[in-house]
Write a structure and sequence with these properties.
The complex is a heterotrimer of chains A (about 50), B (about 240) and C (about 220).
Chain A lengths: L1 H5 L4 H35 L5
Chain B lengths: L6 H32 L13 H28 L2 H33 L7 H22 L3 H33 L14 H43 L1
Chain C lengths: L1 H14 L1 H21 L3 H22 L3 H8 L2 H7 L4 H30 L4 H28 L9 H9 L1 H16 L5 H28 L2
Helix pairs in contact in C: 1-6, 2-3, 2-6, 3-6, 3-7, 3-9, 6-7, 6-10, 7-8, 7-9, 7-10, 9-10
The chains are: A mainly alpha (about 50), B mainly alpha (about 240), C mainly alpha (about 220).
Chain lengths: ~50, ~240, ~220
């Protein structure tokens, strides 16, 4: 298992790459979903179904 | 196609599509990640080859998003259809994100090989310029107050950029052969063995579907926001 | 159309601003870079093409946001749009006037500044030719940006962001021309620059006119 995390001594490059990609995509998804929910709620408050 | 240009129809269609796209995307990403890490290290690049699985898809989406943005801009300009304008606007920040991810992962991918954080590789350089194109587009949208004017101005910019993009890529390619004749960073590294091809294809699929999921959600959000705004304005008068 | 070009040139000359500003900026950069980089003439000669090209390009872009703004603000742009001369031709005229008052003077000054970088004679010639052919592209593509940002207050901030990536081929081929003369090799930079510049000048009036039109109409 240790070898897995070490990534053949390239750990300092592989994991940050995956980490930043994951964080970037997750943050994007969260922001997009939240904005979507907010817009939907705003319409619902006006009594309309989208 | 233009049948779906009716906002109500679009909302209906996208409403059913989005959960599926999102689900399949996550499944593809999970499978791709598993296979990607199960694959053996490359004889030349070692374990850094695994960065390819997140770099190449990001780069691919960065380009695809711009193409979609340009296409939507063209339709918006010619057909004057507000949905096309919204689609173009919605794609830009996502495109910029994937471009940035492509740059960062590219830099990390090549760092062990080149010893520096940035290499003026043809592709990375083109991507940097693509990122600026995206940022300029987004800035233009934000800078013009009138929505319709902003849409048209941004559309023109997107199209000028689209025409210029192949030229930019060509000039950067030409430039790298001029300055780095010997060091050819072949796109994607050495010929891809099938053990790498599967994770790559799955990650590419996952990224693509993820983009479409987020894009459709952003378009829906914009449509709903505008509708709410119009209803509130109508209610006030 | 010549009347419009002459009018714009005369206006620019009277304002006195843009040509002098561009030249001053150009000269300032050409002076400051060696101060920052060091007096190694061999190094300076190698970077001269790039530095001077970028400096010239930025200098040419300085006053670009004013290209249409003065006419826009006092309403004469609406009149010009309705005039018998098409907006495309008008844009071309404005691009030409801009080049005559910025790109051309910069090109003329460049050999003098090239000397500061220790460029040999044939490289100075290459720089001159590349700027002569390439600066019209800067004006042309810059005009598109000027048209798009016409109605934005302080659009001058966003203009470089829009225009600079689009101009990267010009910088690449322009500086490449100087390098080819420096290294004594033919690398095809100048023909590529010429093609790019030609295409930009031919196509830009259409994009510029479209940009102006959308800002005039409502």
């Amino acid at each position: 298992m240790n070898g897995f995390w070490a990534m053949g001594d390239y750990a300092a490059y592989v994991w940050p790459a995956y980490g930043i990609s994951a964080i970037g995509l997750l943050v994007a998804a969260v922001l997009v979903l939240r904005a979507h929910a907010r817009a939907k709620a705003a319409l619902a408050k006006l009594g309309v179904k989208p | 196609m233009l049948r779906y240009a009716n906002p109500a129809r679009f909302m209906q269609l996208s409403g059913t599509l989005v959960p599926w796209l999102g689900g399949v995307s996550l499944a593809a990403l999970a499978a791709g990640l598993y296979l990607g890490f199960a694959a053996p290290p490359d004889y030349q690049q070692g374990d850094t080859v695994r960065v390819m699985f997140i770099h190449v898809p990001a780069a691919w989406i960065a380009m695809m998003a711009y193409g979609l943005m340009a296409l939507a801009s063209l339709i918006g300009l010619v057909q004057r259809h507000p949905l096309a304008d919204v689609a173009a606007k919605a794609a830009a920040p996502l495109g910029a994100l994937f471009t940035a991810l492509g740059l960062i992962t590219g830099s990390l991918w090549w760092r062990p090989m080149w010893g520096t954080w940035w290499v003026w590789d043809g592709r990375l350089t083109s991507f940097l310029l693509l990122l600026f194109l995206y940022l300029g587009y987004i800035a233009l949208w934000n800078a013009i107050e009138d929505e319709t004017r902003a849409a048209r101005a941004a559309a023109i910019l997107a199209l000028v950029g689209a025409v210029n993009l192949p030229i930019i890529e060509f000039s950067v390619d030409w430039w790298t052969t001029l300055h780095q004749g010997e060091s050819i960073l072949r796109k994607g590294g050495p010929l891809i063995a099938s053990v790498y091809l599967w994770p790559l294809a799955l990650m590419a699929l996952g990224y693509t579907l993820l983009f479409f999921t987020l894009w459709l959600l952003r378009i829906r959000t914009e449509i709903m926001t505008r509708r709410a705004r119009n209803l509130m304005l109508a209610g006030e008068t | 159309m010549t009347a419009l070009i002459l009018r714009d040139v005369r206006l620019a000359a009277r304002a006195g601003g843009s040509a002098m500003l561009a030249l001053a900026f150009f000269a300032a950069v050409a002076t400051l870079v060696p101060l920052g980089v060091g007096a190694d003439l061999r190094l300076l000669a190698r970077i001269a093409g790039g530095v001077l090209w970028v400096a010239a390009m930025l200098a040419a872009l300085l006053a670009l946001d004013r290209l249409f703004q003065a006419d826009f603000e006092d309403g004469s742009l609406d009149v010009i749009a309705l005039a018998p001369l098409s907006l495309e031709k008008t844009s071309f005229a404005k691009i030409a006037a801009h080049w005559l008052t910025t790109g051309l003077p910069l090109t003329v000054l460049s050999p003098l500044l090239a000397v500061l970088f220790g460029l040999p004679a044939q490289a100075i010639g290459a720089l001159f030719i590349s700027l002569l052919i390439g600066t019209p592209a800067v004006s042309a593509i810059g005009a598109i940006g000027a048209g798009l940002t016409l109605s934005i207050r302080r659009g001058g901030l966003i203009l470089p962001l829009i225009v600079l990536p689009l101009l990267s081929p010009a910088v690449i081929f322009g500086a490449g021309t100087v390098l080819s003369a420096l290294d004594g090799l033919r690398n095809g930079a100048l023909p590529l620059l010429t093609a790019f510049s030609f295409a930009a000048c031919v196509l830009s009036p259409f994009a510029t006119a479209a940009a102006v039109r959308l800002n005039l109409g409502s």
